[in-house]
Amino acid sequence: MIALLIRDMRLAMRAGGGFGLGLAFFLIVSTLVPFGVGPEAAILSRIAPGILWVGALLACLLSLDRIFQLDFEDGSLDLLATAPIPMEGTVAIKALAHWLVTGLPLTLAAPAFGALMNLQSPGHFWIFVTLLIGTPALSMIGAFGAALTVGLKRGGLLLSLLVLPLYIPTLIFGAEAATRGTAGLSALTPLLMMAGITAGSIALLPFAAAAALRINLR
Amino acid sequence: MSLWEFANPVKFMALSGKVLPWVIALAVLTLVPGMVWGFFFTPEAVNFGNSVKIIYIHVPSAMMAINIWAMMLVTSLIWIVRRHHVSVRAAKAAALIGVTMTVIALITGAIWGEPMWGTYWAWDPRLTSFLILFLFYLGYMALWAAIEDPDTAADLTSVLCIVGSVFALLSRYAVNFWNQGLHQGASLSVDKEEHVADVYYLPLLLCIAGFVLLFVALVLIRTRTELRLVRLHRLEIRERMKDA
Q: pTM of this prediction?
Protein backbone atom coordinates (compact mmCIF):
# COMPACT_ATOMS: atom_id res chain seq x y z
CA MET A 1 0.00 0.00 0.00
CA ILE A 2 2.85 2.33 0.79
CA ALA A 3 4.42 1.45 -2.56
CA LEU A 4 1.16 2.40 -4.25
CA LEU A 5 1.06 5.68 -2.34
CA ILE A 6 4.61 6.54 -3.38
CA ARG A 7 3.96 5.54 -6.98
CA ASP A 8 0.82 7.68 -7.19
CA MET A 9 2.53 10.71 -5.70
CA ARG A 10 5.52 10.37 -8.03
CA LEU A 11 3.27 10.09 -11.06
CA ALA A 12 1.26 13.11 -9.99
CA MET A 13 4.36 15.27 -9.51
CA ARG A 14 6.15 14.16 -12.67
CA ALA A 15 3.11 14.68 -14.86
CA GLY A 16 3.19 18.29 -13.69
CA GLY A 17 -0.59 18.47 -13.87
CA GLY A 18 -1.94 17.88 -10.35
CA PHE A 19 0.00 19.76 -7.79
CA GLY A 20 1.36 22.85 -9.53
CA LEU A 21 -1.75 23.40 -11.62
CA GLY A 22 -4.14 23.22 -8.66
CA LEU A 23 -2.11 25.79 -6.73
CA ALA A 24 -1.83 28.08 -9.75
CA PHE A 25 -5.59 27.83 -10.27
CA PHE A 26 -6.18 28.72 -6.62
CA LEU A 27 -3.88 31.75 -6.96
CA ILE A 28 -5.73 32.91 -10.07
CA VAL A 29 -9.13 32.62 -8.37
CA SER A 30 -7.81 34.61 -5.39
CA THR A 31 -6.53 37.25 -7.83
CA LEU A 32 -9.70 37.43 -9.90
CA VAL A 33 -12.17 37.88 -7.05
CA PRO A 34 -10.90 41.36 -6.08
CA PHE A 35 -11.20 42.38 -9.75
CA GLY A 36 -14.79 41.20 -9.66
CA VAL A 37 -15.96 42.76 -6.41
CA GLY A 38 -13.69 45.80 -6.28
CA PRO A 39 -10.62 46.61 -4.17
CA GLU A 40 -12.36 47.86 -0.99
CA ALA A 41 -10.53 46.30 1.94
CA ALA A 42 -13.59 46.03 4.19
CA ILE A 43 -15.63 43.99 1.73
CA LEU A 44 -12.68 41.80 0.80
CA SER A 45 -11.77 40.92 4.35
CA ARG A 46 -15.39 40.03 5.08
CA ILE A 47 -15.71 37.62 2.15
CA ALA A 48 -12.11 36.32 2.23
CA PRO A 49 -12.70 33.07 4.22
CA GLY A 50 -15.61 32.07 1.99
CA ILE A 51 -13.78 32.87 -1.24
CA LEU A 52 -10.69 30.96 -0.11
CA TRP A 53 -12.89 27.95 0.67
CA VAL A 54 -14.67 28.05 -2.69
CA GLY A 55 -11.33 28.52 -4.47
CA ALA A 56 -9.76 25.56 -2.68
CA LEU A 57 -12.80 23.43 -3.49
CA LEU A 58 -12.65 24.27 -7.19
CA ALA A 59 -8.89 23.71 -7.32
CA CYS A 60 -9.46 20.31 -5.73
CA LEU A 61 -12.12 19.51 -8.32
CA LEU A 62 -9.72 20.18 -11.22
CA SER A 63 -7.47 17.20 -10.62
CA LEU A 64 -10.11 14.65 -9.58
CA ASP A 65 -10.44 12.88 -12.92
CA ARG A 66 -6.74 11.97 -12.75
CA ILE A 67 -7.27 9.77 -9.68
CA PHE A 68 -8.43 6.77 -11.67
CA GLN A 69 -8.64 7.80 -15.34
CA LEU A 70 -4.99 7.23 -16.40
CA ASP A 71 -4.75 3.94 -14.51
CA PHE A 72 -8.01 2.84 -16.11
CA GLU A 73 -6.78 3.66 -19.59
CA ASP A 74 -3.41 1.87 -19.38
CA GLY A 75 -4.86 -1.14 -17.55
CA SER A 76 -3.03 -0.77 -14.24
CA LEU A 77 -6.40 -0.41 -12.52
CA ASP A 78 -7.24 -3.96 -13.59
CA LEU A 79 -3.97 -5.15 -12.06
CA LEU A 80 -4.73 -3.26 -8.85
CA ALA A 81 -8.17 -4.89 -8.77
CA THR A 82 -6.63 -8.36 -8.90
CA ALA A 83 -3.83 -7.45 -6.46
CA PRO A 84 -3.94 -8.79 -2.89
CA ILE A 85 -4.88 -5.35 -1.49
CA PRO A 86 -8.68 -4.99 -1.19
CA MET A 87 -10.21 -2.50 -3.60
CA GLU A 88 -11.34 -0.35 -0.67
CA GLY A 89 -7.71 0.02 0.39
CA THR A 90 -6.65 1.02 -3.13
CA VAL A 91 -9.34 3.70 -3.21
CA ALA A 92 -8.38 5.04 0.22
CA ILE A 93 -4.69 5.19 -0.72
CA LYS A 94 -5.42 6.93 -4.01
CA ALA A 95 -7.60 9.47 -2.22
CA LEU A 96 -4.77 10.01 0.29
CA ALA A 97 -2.26 10.52 -2.54
CA HIS A 98 -4.65 13.03 -4.13
CA TRP A 99 -4.95 14.87 -0.83
CA LEU A 100 -1.16 14.98 -0.34
CA VAL A 101 -0.57 16.52 -3.77
CA THR A 102 -3.60 18.88 -3.88
CA GLY A 103 -5.34 19.34 -0.53
CA LEU A 104 -2.23 19.74 1.58
CA PRO A 105 -0.46 22.30 -0.69
CA LEU A 106 -3.74 24.26 -0.92
CA THR A 107 -4.02 24.26 2.88
CA LEU A 108 -0.46 25.50 3.27
CA ALA A 109 -0.85 28.18 0.60
CA ALA A 110 -4.29 29.48 1.64
CA PRO A 111 -3.13 31.66 4.58
CA ALA A 112 -0.58 33.33 2.26
CA PHE A 113 -3.17 33.91 -0.48
CA GLY A 114 -5.40 35.36 2.23
CA ALA A 115 -3.09 38.38 2.21
CA LEU A 116 -4.36 39.17 -1.29
CA MET A 117 -7.84 39.54 0.18
CA ASN A 118 -6.96 41.47 3.30
CA LEU A 119 -7.66 38.52 5.59
CA GLN A 120 -7.51 39.74 9.20
CA SER A 121 -5.17 38.31 11.83
CA PRO A 122 -6.90 35.29 13.45
CA GLY A 123 -8.23 34.41 9.99
CA HIS A 124 -4.95 32.93 8.74
CA PHE A 125 -5.02 30.39 11.52
CA TRP A 126 -8.69 29.52 11.02
CA ILE A 127 -8.48 29.13 7.26
CA PHE A 128 -5.51 26.81 7.77
CA VAL A 129 -7.26 24.70 10.41
CA THR A 130 -10.58 24.40 8.57
CA LEU A 131 -8.91 23.50 5.27
CA LEU A 132 -6.65 21.00 7.02
CA ILE A 133 -9.66 19.20 8.47
CA GLY A 134 -11.98 19.70 5.49
CA THR A 135 -9.87 18.96 2.40
CA PRO A 136 -9.48 15.21 3.16
CA ALA A 137 -13.27 14.95 2.85
CA LEU A 138 -13.08 16.77 -0.49
CA SER A 139 -10.49 14.28 -1.80
CA MET A 140 -12.46 11.28 -0.56
CA ILE A 141 -15.80 12.47 -1.98
CA GLY A 142 -13.99 13.34 -5.19
CA ALA A 143 -12.49 9.85 -5.39
CA PHE A 144 -16.03 8.45 -5.17
CA GLY A 145 -17.16 10.72 -8.03
CA ALA A 146 -14.09 9.76 -10.07
CA ALA A 147 -14.83 6.07 -9.49
CA LEU A 148 -18.38 6.56 -10.79
CA THR A 149 -17.29 8.28 -14.01
CA VAL A 150 -14.06 6.39 -14.74
CA GLY A 151 -15.44 4.42 -17.67
CA LEU A 152 -16.73 7.45 -19.53
CA LYS A 153 -14.95 9.11 -22.44
CA ARG A 154 -15.60 12.70 -21.44
CA GLY A 155 -16.43 12.33 -17.78
CA GLY A 156 -14.91 15.65 -16.67
CA LEU A 157 -17.97 17.87 -16.85
CA LEU A 158 -20.25 15.12 -15.53
CA LEU A 159 -17.82 14.58 -12.67
CA SER A 160 -18.23 18.20 -11.53
CA LEU A 161 -22.00 17.95 -11.78
CA LEU A 162 -21.97 14.82 -9.59
CA VAL A 163 -19.36 15.92 -7.07
CA LEU A 164 -20.24 19.57 -6.42
CA PRO A 165 -23.63 18.84 -4.77
CA LEU A 166 -21.87 16.31 -2.55
CA TYR A 167 -19.41 19.03 -1.50
CA ILE A 168 -22.18 21.32 -0.20
CA PRO A 169 -22.29 20.18 3.47
CA THR A 170 -18.50 20.29 3.82
CA LEU A 171 -18.40 23.75 2.26
CA ILE A 172 -21.19 25.09 4.48
CA PHE A 173 -19.57 23.97 7.72
CA GLY A 174 -16.01 24.72 6.61
CA ALA A 175 -16.70 28.25 5.40
CA GLU A 176 -18.94 28.92 8.41
CA ALA A 177 -16.19 27.82 10.83
CA ALA A 178 -13.60 29.92 9.00
CA THR A 179 -15.88 32.98 8.93
CA ARG A 180 -16.79 32.68 12.61
CA GLY A 181 -13.20 32.11 13.65
CA THR A 182 -12.04 35.13 11.64
CA ALA A 183 -14.73 37.29 13.22
CA GLY A 184 -13.54 36.17 16.67
CA LEU A 185 -16.65 34.10 17.47
CA SER A 186 -16.69 30.53 18.71
CA ALA A 187 -16.19 28.23 15.73
CA LEU A 188 -16.26 24.95 17.59
CA THR A 189 -19.71 23.68 16.50
CA PRO A 190 -19.25 23.98 12.71
CA LEU A 191 -15.67 22.74 13.07
CA LEU A 192 -16.83 19.59 14.84
CA MET A 193 -19.62 19.05 12.30
CA MET A 194 -17.12 19.32 9.46
CA ALA A 195 -14.71 16.96 11.24
CA GLY A 196 -17.64 14.54 11.54
CA ILE A 197 -18.29 14.73 7.79
CA THR A 198 -14.59 14.13 7.10
CA ALA A 199 -14.42 11.15 9.44
CA GLY A 200 -17.65 9.68 8.06
CA SER A 201 -16.48 10.10 4.46
CA ILE A 202 -13.14 8.42 5.14
CA ALA A 203 -14.86 5.56 6.96
CA LEU A 204 -17.69 4.85 4.50
CA LEU A 205 -16.98 6.25 1.04
CA PRO A 206 -14.11 3.83 0.17
CA PHE A 207 -16.72 1.07 0.18
CA ALA A 208 -19.06 2.96 -2.16
CA ALA A 209 -16.18 3.99 -4.43
CA ALA A 210 -14.81 0.43 -4.56
CA ALA A 211 -18.28 -0.85 -5.47
CA ALA A 212 -18.49 1.70 -8.29
CA LEU A 213 -15.00 0.75 -9.55
CA ARG A 214 -15.90 -2.95 -9.57
CA ILE A 215 -18.99 -2.18 -11.65
CA ASN A 216 -16.92 -0.13 -14.08
CA LEU A 217 -14.23 -2.82 -14.42
CA ARG A 218 -16.76 -5.59 -15.01
CA MET B 1 -48.68 -13.03 -6.10
CA SER B 2 -45.58 -11.45 -4.66
CA LEU B 3 -43.71 -8.27 -5.51
CA TRP B 4 -40.77 -10.33 -6.80
CA GLU B 5 -42.83 -11.89 -9.58
CA PHE B 6 -42.92 -8.52 -11.27
CA ALA B 7 -39.16 -8.57 -11.70
CA ASN B 8 -40.21 -10.36 -14.84
CA PRO B 9 -40.92 -7.48 -17.26
CA VAL B 10 -43.52 -9.47 -19.20
CA LYS B 11 -45.66 -9.92 -16.08
CA PHE B 12 -45.17 -6.28 -15.12
CA MET B 13 -46.19 -5.11 -18.58
CA ALA B 14 -49.32 -7.26 -18.55
CA LEU B 15 -50.53 -6.05 -15.16
CA SER B 16 -49.51 -2.39 -15.54
CA GLY B 17 -51.26 -2.25 -18.91
CA LYS B 18 -54.50 -3.29 -17.26
CA VAL B 19 -54.12 -1.02 -14.22
CA LEU B 20 -52.96 2.10 -16.04
CA PRO B 21 -56.30 3.37 -17.48
CA TRP B 22 -57.90 3.10 -14.03
CA VAL B 23 -55.10 5.05 -12.37
CA ILE B 24 -55.32 7.76 -15.02
CA ALA B 25 -59.10 7.97 -14.57
CA LEU B 26 -58.76 8.22 -10.78
CA ALA B 27 -56.06 10.89 -11.10
CA VAL B 28 -58.30 13.00 -13.32
CA LEU B 29 -61.27 12.43 -10.99
CA THR B 30 -59.37 13.74 -7.94
CA LEU B 31 -57.12 16.38 -9.48
CA VAL B 32 -59.70 18.24 -11.56
CA PRO B 33 -62.35 18.62 -8.79
CA GLY B 34 -59.61 19.37 -6.25
CA MET B 35 -58.15 22.17 -8.39
CA VAL B 36 -61.54 23.62 -9.37
CA TRP B 37 -62.75 23.53 -5.77
CA GLY B 38 -59.52 25.05 -4.53
CA PHE B 39 -59.28 27.79 -7.13
CA PHE B 40 -62.89 28.90 -7.49
CA PHE B 41 -64.86 27.86 -4.41
CA THR B 42 -62.65 28.81 -1.47
CA PRO B 43 -62.63 32.27 0.14
CA GLU B 44 -59.65 34.60 -0.06
CA ALA B 45 -57.45 34.50 3.02
CA VAL B 46 -57.25 37.53 5.29
CA ASN B 47 -53.65 38.57 4.77
CA PHE B 48 -52.87 36.77 1.57
CA GLY B 49 -55.68 37.61 -0.85
CA ASN B 50 -55.93 35.42 -3.92
CA SER B 51 -52.31 34.34 -3.71
CA VAL B 52 -53.23 31.73 -1.09
CA LYS B 53 -54.59 29.56 -3.90
CA ILE B 54 -51.13 28.67 -5.13
CA ILE B 55 -51.02 26.33 -2.13
CA TYR B 56 -52.97 23.77 -4.21
CA ILE B 57 -50.01 23.37 -6.55
CA HIS B 58 -47.09 24.35 -4.36
CA VAL B 59 -47.66 22.03 -1.39
CA PRO B 60 -48.47 18.82 -3.32
CA SER B 61 -45.59 19.31 -5.76
CA ALA B 62 -43.12 20.01 -2.93
CA MET B 63 -44.30 16.89 -1.09
CA MET B 64 -43.94 14.82 -4.23
CA ALA B 65 -40.47 16.19 -4.98
CA ILE B 66 -39.13 14.86 -1.67
CA ASN B 67 -41.12 11.63 -1.64
CA ILE B 68 -40.10 10.74 -5.20
CA TRP B 69 -36.45 10.90 -4.15
CA ALA B 70 -37.29 8.58 -1.24
CA MET B 71 -39.02 6.21 -3.64
CA MET B 72 -35.94 6.26 -5.90
CA LEU B 73 -33.78 5.38 -2.90
CA VAL B 74 -35.99 2.39 -2.05
CA THR B 75 -36.18 1.13 -5.64
CA SER B 76 -32.40 1.56 -6.08
CA LEU B 77 -31.80 -0.50 -2.95
CA ILE B 78 -34.16 -3.20 -4.22
CA TRP B 79 -32.20 -3.28 -7.49
CA ILE B 80 -28.84 -3.60 -5.70
CA VAL B 81 -30.04 -6.28 -3.31
CA ARG B 82 -32.29 -8.37 -5.52
CA ARG B 83 -31.48 -7.35 -9.14
CA HIS B 84 -35.16 -6.49 -9.60
CA HIS B 85 -35.15 -5.27 -13.21
CA VAL B 86 -38.40 -3.34 -13.11
CA SER B 87 -37.45 -1.58 -9.88
CA VAL B 88 -34.46 0.29 -11.25
CA ARG B 89 -36.33 1.32 -14.40
CA ALA B 90 -39.02 2.76 -12.12
CA ALA B 91 -36.31 4.78 -10.34
CA LYS B 92 -35.12 6.18 -13.67
CA ALA B 93 -38.70 6.90 -14.72
CA ALA B 94 -39.41 8.67 -11.43
CA ALA B 95 -36.35 10.95 -11.64
CA LEU B 96 -37.70 13.08 -14.47
CA ILE B 97 -41.06 13.46 -12.73
CA GLY B 98 -39.26 14.31 -9.49
CA VAL B 99 -37.17 17.02 -11.09
CA THR B 100 -40.30 18.48 -12.70
CA MET B 101 -42.06 18.57 -9.32
CA THR B 102 -39.01 20.29 -7.78
CA VAL B 103 -39.05 22.95 -10.50
CA ILE B 104 -42.82 23.45 -10.09
CA ALA B 105 -42.39 23.85 -6.32
CA LEU B 106 -39.53 26.34 -6.78
CA ILE B 107 -41.34 28.40 -9.41
CA THR B 108 -44.72 28.53 -7.64
CA GLY B 109 -42.85 29.39 -4.45
CA ALA B 110 -41.08 32.27 -6.21
CA ILE B 111 -44.37 33.54 -7.65
CA TRP B 112 -45.92 33.43 -4.19
CA GLY B 113 -42.84 34.91 -2.54
CA GLU B 114 -42.70 38.06 -4.65
CA PRO B 115 -45.94 39.69 -3.34
CA MET B 116 -45.71 38.13 0.14
CA TRP B 117 -42.06 38.40 1.10
CA GLY B 118 -41.12 41.04 -1.47
CA THR B 119 -38.59 38.77 -3.14
CA TYR B 120 -38.57 35.89 -5.58
CA TRP B 121 -35.71 34.16 -3.87
CA ALA B 122 -34.21 34.15 -0.39
CA TRP B 123 -31.49 31.91 0.99
CA ASP B 124 -33.95 30.36 3.35
CA PRO B 125 -33.23 26.77 4.50
CA ARG B 126 -36.26 25.26 2.80
CA LEU B 127 -35.69 27.07 -0.47
CA THR B 128 -31.99 26.27 -0.40
CA SER B 129 -32.52 22.59 0.30
CA PHE B 130 -34.93 22.42 -2.63
CA LEU B 131 -32.37 23.98 -4.90
CA ILE B 132 -29.83 21.40 -3.67
CA LEU B 133 -32.36 18.61 -4.24
CA PHE B 134 -32.76 19.91 -7.80
CA LEU B 135 -28.96 19.63 -8.30
CA PHE B 136 -28.99 16.06 -6.98
CA TYR B 137 -31.76 15.14 -9.44
CA LEU B 138 -29.75 16.70 -12.27
CA GLY B 139 -26.62 14.72 -11.38
CA TYR B 140 -28.58 11.48 -11.14
CA MET B 141 -30.20 11.99 -14.53
CA ALA B 142 -26.95 13.09 -16.16
CA LEU B 143 -25.25 9.88 -15.00
CA TRP B 144 -28.08 7.81 -16.48
CA ALA B 145 -27.75 9.65 -19.76
CA ALA B 146 -23.97 9.30 -19.94
CA ILE B 147 -23.64 5.51 -19.67
CA GLU B 148 -24.54 3.36 -22.61
CA ASP B 149 -24.89 -0.14 -21.15
CA PRO B 150 -28.25 -0.31 -19.31
CA ASP B 151 -27.11 -2.61 -16.48
CA THR B 152 -23.90 -0.69 -15.73
CA ALA B 153 -25.90 2.53 -15.73
CA ALA B 154 -28.44 0.99 -13.37
CA ASP B 155 -25.72 -0.14 -10.93
CA LEU B 156 -23.82 3.13 -10.93
CA THR B 157 -26.87 5.36 -10.61
CA SER B 158 -28.13 3.20 -7.74
CA VAL B 159 -24.84 3.66 -5.89
CA LEU B 160 -25.02 7.40 -6.58
CA CYS B 161 -28.62 7.54 -5.33
CA ILE B 162 -27.71 5.88 -2.03
CA VAL B 163 -24.63 8.03 -1.38
CA GLY B 164 -26.47 11.10 -2.66
CA SER B 165 -29.33 10.53 -0.23
CA VAL B 166 -26.95 10.67 2.72
CA PHE B 167 -25.40 13.90 1.47
CA ALA B 168 -28.77 15.41 0.55
CA LEU B 169 -29.95 14.77 4.12
CA LEU B 170 -26.72 16.27 5.50
CA SER B 171 -27.17 19.35 3.31
CA ARG B 172 -30.75 19.72 4.49
CA TYR B 173 -29.64 20.05 8.10
CA ALA B 174 -26.48 21.96 7.23
CA VAL B 175 -28.49 24.77 5.61
CA ASN B 176 -30.69 24.94 8.71
CA PHE B 177 -27.57 25.71 10.64
CA TRP B 178 -26.30 28.12 8.02
CA ASN B 179 -29.21 30.55 7.78
CA GLN B 180 -32.50 31.25 9.49
CA GLY B 181 -35.62 31.16 7.40
CA LEU B 182 -38.56 33.12 6.11
CA HIS B 183 -40.63 30.10 5.20
CA GLN B 184 -43.45 29.20 7.60
CA GLY B 185 -43.50 25.82 9.32
CA ALA B 186 -45.35 22.81 8.00
CA SER B 187 -48.97 23.56 7.05
CA LEU B 188 -50.04 19.95 7.45
CA SER B 189 -49.08 17.18 9.76
CA VAL B 190 -50.40 13.80 10.71
CA ASP B 191 -49.74 13.87 14.44
CA LYS B 192 -50.57 17.46 15.35
CA GLU B 193 -53.93 19.19 15.34
CA GLU B 194 -52.55 22.34 13.76
CA HIS B 195 -53.72 22.57 10.20
CA VAL B 196 -54.71 25.30 7.87
CA ALA B 197 -58.44 26.04 8.19
CA ASP B 198 -60.80 23.33 6.95
CA VAL B 199 -62.02 25.36 3.94
CA TYR B 200 -58.50 25.15 2.51
CA TYR B 201 -57.59 21.82 4.06
CA LEU B 202 -60.13 19.60 2.31
CA PRO B 203 -59.48 20.69 -1.29
CA LEU B 204 -55.75 20.57 -0.49
CA LEU B 205 -56.03 16.93 0.57
CA LEU B 206 -57.89 16.20 -2.66
CA CYS B 207 -55.13 17.89 -4.67
CA ILE B 208 -52.43 15.92 -2.84
CA ALA B 209 -54.26 12.67 -3.59
CA GLY B 210 -54.53 13.81 -7.20
CA PHE B 211 -50.79 14.53 -7.42
CA VAL B 212 -49.95 11.11 -5.96
CA LEU B 213 -52.23 9.36 -8.45
CA LEU B 214 -50.86 11.47 -11.29
CA PHE B 215 -47.36 10.46 -10.26
CA VAL B 216 -48.30 6.77 -10.17
CA ALA B 217 -49.83 7.03 -13.64
CA LEU B 218 -46.82 8.88 -15.08
CA VAL B 219 -44.35 6.51 -13.47
CA LEU B 220 -46.19 3.51 -14.89
CA ILE B 221 -46.20 5.03 -18.37
CA ARG B 222 -42.51 5.93 -18.22
CA THR B 223 -41.47 2.60 -16.70
CA ARG B 224 -43.24 0.83 -19.54
CA THR B 225 -41.37 3.03 -22.02
CA GLU B 226 -38.06 2.30 -20.27
CA LEU B 227 -38.65 -1.45 -20.34
CA ARG B 228 -39.44 -1.27 -24.04
CA LEU B 229 -36.21 0.74 -24.56
CA VAL B 230 -34.16 -1.91 -22.78
CA ARG B 231 -35.79 -4.61 -24.90
CA LEU B 232 -35.04 -2.59 -28.04
CA HIS B 233 -31.40 -2.26 -26.97
CA ARG B 234 -31.14 -6.03 -26.41
CA LEU B 235 -32.78 -6.79 -29.78
CA GLU B 236 -30.40 -4.44 -31.57
CA ILE B 237 -27.42 -6.19 -30.00
CA ARG B 238 -28.84 -9.55 -31.01
CA GLU B 239 -29.26 -8.38 -34.62
CA ARG B 240 -25.70 -7.12 -34.75
CA MET B 241 -24.42 -10.42 -33.36
CA LYS B 242 -26.32 -12.24 -36.10
CA ASP B 243 -24.69 -10.15 -38.84
CA ALA B 244 -21.21 -10.63 -37.44
A: 0.88
Q: Which residue has the higher pLDDT, A8 or A46?
A: A46
Per-residue pLDDT of A154-187, as tens digits, reads 777 889 999 999 999 999 999 989 988 888 888 8
B177 CB neighbours in chain A (<8 A) are 172-173, 176, 189-190, 193
Closest to A211 in 3D by CA, of A94, A71, A86: A86
In chain A, residues with a C-beta closer than 8 Å to the C-beta of B171 are: 165, 168-169, 172
User: Across residues B98-105, what is the average pLDDT?
Assistant: 94
Count structural domains, chain A.
1
Interface of B with A in 111-170 (CB under 8 A): 132, 135-136, 138-139, 142-143, 146-147, 152, 155-156, 159-160, 162-164, 167-168, 170
DSSP class of residue A75 equals T
Residues, chain B, total?
A: 244
Q: What are the beta bridge partners of residue B45? A: B49
Burial status of residue A100 (CB atoms within 10 A of its CB: 0-12, 13-18, 19 or more): middle
Q: ipTM, 2 decimals?
A: 0.87
Q: What residues make up the domain containing A213? A: 2-217
Q: Does B41 reach chain A within 8 Å, measured CB to CB? A: no
Residue A10 distance to chain B (closest CA, Å): 30
What single letter denotes the amino acid at residue B49?
G
